[in-house]
Amino acid sequence: MQITKINGAISASANIGVNAGYGHSNEVGINLDDLCELNKKLAAQVMAETGVYVSSVIGETRCCYSDDWGCPKGGEKTFSLSADCNPTYSSLPTEEYTEKWKLSFLRLVELLMEELEQSAVTAKVGNEVLYFSR
Description:
2 helices; single chain; five-stranded antiparallel beta sheet
């Protein structure tokens, strides 16, 4: 087995709710398969815009916050999205590809947020933590 360090690689992640607003009872029944299909559709849209396809790992999660802020019993249904940028898959210079990939990941998060009617999402790209709000 050979293990190679990938220069210029970065990781990104976000946690996105599937129910609009706060104070709900997790009534939306979207499942992981549907989320993955939505993600693939939006990733293709981002690729058409930027030329970069962001492959993702998606898992069902729960966000637990204060009951005073409207957290449903058992936590709010969310999903975690993670992705790794591997510049070796591109013919562009590493720095240029990595920057395009970052912008593509953030655009994907933005589209998912809009589609799922979320008002706030926190994402991490490399060492940067970014807060989306609308």
